[in-house]
Amino acid sequence: MIGFYVNLKIKAGFEAKFEEILKEIVPASRKDKGCLSYECGKVAGAQSEYCFMEIWDTLASQEAHMKSAHMIKNATALESCKDSQEVKIINFIHVEE
Questions:
Q1: Do residues 52 and 39 touch, judged by C-beta distance below 8 A?
Q2: Which partner from 28, 54, 60, 63 sits 20 to 30 angstroms from 89, CA to CA?
Q3: Mind listing the pLDDT tens digit for each residue in 27-67?
Q4: How far apart are CA 25 and CA 94, in angstroms?
Q5: Measured between alpha carbons, how far is 73 from 78 in angstroms, rounded to an integer?
Q6: 3-class SS at 92?
Q7: How far apart are CA 7 and CA 43, in angstroms?
Q8: 36-44 contacts at long range (C-beta below 8 A, 24 or more positions apart)
Q9: d(C-alpha 75, C-alpha 85), whole Å
Q10: How many CB atoms lie within 10 A of CB 38?
């Protein structure tokens, strides 16, 4: 299992466009093979900052997701909204209950 924490700063005035794109990519991404969780939210107290939190069964699943039709279709529109992006990959620590 592998996680992705993706922090995006959106260009001023592009928030509504970005949120419209989310309406397509979030539900579609949740259906991608190997997706265990896929969420995006607005960072509290930040006007134009969003965060994706993703959990995949394997890195290969996440890489395939990035090549999926819904991601390729929206890539240019997403890039036009972004001011900056920071990606952190999380290797989960298995803890017994």
A1: yes
A2: 28
A3: 999 999 999 999 999 999 998 999 999 999 999 999 999 99
A4: 29
A5: 10
A6: coil
A7: 9
A8: 36/1, 43/7
A9: 14
A10: 20
